[in-house]
Design a protein that fits this description.
Blueprint lengths: L11 H12 L18 H14 L2 H11 L4 H27 L6 H5 L11 H25 L3 H31 L4 H12 L7 H5 L12 H12 L4 H17 L6 H11 L2
Helix pairs in contact: 1-4, 2-4, 2-10, 3-4, 4-7, 6-7, 6-8, 6-11, 8-11, 8-12
The structure holds fe (ii) ion (2 copies).
One fe (ii) ion binds next to α7.
Length: 272
């Protein structure tokens, strides 16, 4: 096995660790005893249960990363740091549900445990994660503006900021990976095309974890996205998200990816 080492340069995961260590919020700071029950609507509970199911995938994701990135210490260290934050999101949303007298179905969470299969390439895996982070960043921010219960509003805002940071870091590691493995660019473009070429929110957790029997009677992440598009999102919200994803991938790969047609053209060019 060849080992991709960053030589004598400082590991990026150390920069990330220092940054999080200095600035990151803590679950203990969330004012759960100040939750305003008079402002809680049933839709909030559904959305937060969906968020719990999405966030609970962190374990499967970390497991998958550890299997797939055996040759990359720096990214693996980042994945562990990232995983802690996602567990924090999972348990912060769970704590809010407890504060309003709701419960999470542990069997549904446990069904999320199995690891992800590797992507078609490691770059495709990183690209998939850029999309999932940009998506939850967008959704959490919009939902935060929409909800009126102040503790949930604050939690969604903080989680949304974290997801923006995660998208940046996955983009960083994807760029590093593509510098060393430009032959993986087509797999990144295929990933983009798969997730952005239709008019609904496609999220990797929904794509990879649908059809589990344990999820038949619970909210899933897709329940949340459907409710988001039906009840929360402004007209143009999905286009805005897809535009953001396309711009990120455009700067990552150097191709014009501003429309589905442009993505298909770039894919053909990159395959030579
Ligand atoms: Fe998260
Ligand atoms: Fe995230």
């Amino acid at each position: 096995m060849t080992v991709d080492l960053p030589g004598m340069a400082q590991m990026h995961s150390l920069d990330v660790f220092r940054h999080y260590d200095r600035t990151h919020w803590r679950l203990a700071e969330l004012q759960l005893d100040a939750v305003d029950l008079t402002k809680v609507k049933p839709e909030y509970v559904t959305l937060v249960k969906s968020a719990v199911m999405g966030e609970s995938n962190v374990i499967a994701a970390v497991h998958g990363f550890m299997n797939e990135f055996l040759d990359d210490y720096d990214f693996s260290a980042f994945a562990v740091i990232w995983g802690y934050q996602e567990v924090q999101h999972h348990y912060a949303f769970t704590s809010w549900l407890q504060a309003v007298g709701e419960e999470v179905d542990n069997r549904a969470v446990a069904a999320m445990r199995a690891p992800y299969d590797p992507g078609s390439t490691p770059s495709a895996t990183l690209a998939t994660n850029i999309i999932s982070e940009l998506t939850v960043n967008h959704v959490y921010r919009a939902v935060s503006q929409w909800v009126e219960e102040p503790v949930l509003k604050q939690l969604l805002l903080q989680a949304s900021r974290d997801e923006a940071g995660h998208a940046r870091e996955f983009r960083h590691f994807a760029a590093k990976r593509l510098e060393r493995h430009p032959e993986e660019i087509p797999s990144v473009l295929e990933t983009l095309y798969f997730y952005t070429s239709d008019d609904r929110i496609k999220h990797p957790v929904g794509v990879f974890k649908s059809g589990l029997a344990e999820l038949e009677t619970t909210e899933t992440i897709d329940t949340g996205f459907e409710m988001f598009l039906d009840t929360v999102a402004d007209a143009g919200s999905l286009e805005e998200l897809q535009g953001k994803i396309r711009r990120t991938f455009g700067s990552l790969t150097g191709y014009d990816l501003s429309s589905n047609k442009a993505v298909r053209r770039a894919l053909a060019t990159s395959l030579g």
